[in-house]
Amino acid sequence: xxYLKSNDLFAxxxxxxxxxxxxHPMVIADHLMTPDNIGAMIRLADNIxxxxxxxxGNEEEHRLGKVRRAAASSRDNIRWYFSEETDLRxxxxxxxxxxxxxxxxNATCIYDTELPEDVAFIxxxxxxxxxxxxxxQCDMVVYIPVPGPTRSLNVSHAAAVALFEWQRQMIIKRxxxxxxxxFDLDRTLWDFDAAAEVAFERIYEKYDLKRLGIPSAxxxxxxxxPLNEHLWELYRENKITKDDLNRTRFVxxxxxxxxxxxxxxxxxxxxYVYWSPRIVRLVPGTMELLEYLKPKCHLHLITNGFxxxxxxxxxxxxxxxxxxxxxxSEEVGVKKPNPEIFHYALRKANxxxxxxxxxxxxxxxxxxxxxxxxxxxLFFNPTGAEVAGERTFExxxxxxxxxxxxx
Length: 407
What we know:
The chain is of the alpha/beta class. It is built from 15 helices and 13 strands.
């Protein structure tokens, strides 16, 4: 092991990224008396990445030359100033929670207290601590347990303990960084129902289905939809084949209207399979999300369906360049939620479950299947309906994902 200068170490570790998603703290000190403690507080505030450090009291009472020497280079790196203001809220932004570091009757142990993200810490003077008036203005009061025979901490030491305990808590609370993100396609990125509606309008007009007693393309699709969903469920369970699905999903809705015409059902199916992936309809926010995530992680797709159909959707929509791998149930031989398709997709992506996140709109298919192999999950729930099941995250709009993951 070789000594490495801190600037060299941290150039690689980039601890400043801690503040990528949380505000910088503020530090306040009440009537400190010694230049060494004032300088140490400036140095500490600089170390922790504070926005500023405010010293309550009269600047003229202090030997600023000694303060600057004690603060060293930090004196030029951070804003520090003196103020005789006694109303803390005139110094501290409204967004920040004021936390006093003090031994007081209402204080809680700092190690048992969940500290706020947006915080202003205040410490008292070396001799008298914080006044009752200042304590009354604080939102929280925490103490630092001291097990040794000397029960009081140096003020700059106390501030350091509190600030780095706050930093530790913020690091623990940071969202997990995913190296690989796997998406479902239909109804997660591709607006399956919107594309289907347009496809139905085209086949309705082409085959003049109104003449056969079907009132409208919309109503025909409304009849078709639940029947198709049931057939897909049977297909996922390997109870019917791909050919059975393609034919029966139009035979049944035609029969609903008393039309028994297998040949017509075949024509409708062929045209639907042709048109539905060529009518590009994306869930709002899709391209913006992919553009945001692409530089940050590896993107992949896991989808039930037919290879040629899903590939056509990706190509014509412009989504294909964003994804490094596409895993379709047809190539694997099993369908979601079977764990094997997730294992297959992970191997194909050279990824592990621990570093991966699955995003999908079906709890039983996408989320439960991914959880079974140890992946974290994000349930895309655009309707906001209550859906039972465990998930790591849930969003109602794709635009919420970037904030949710804080990548």
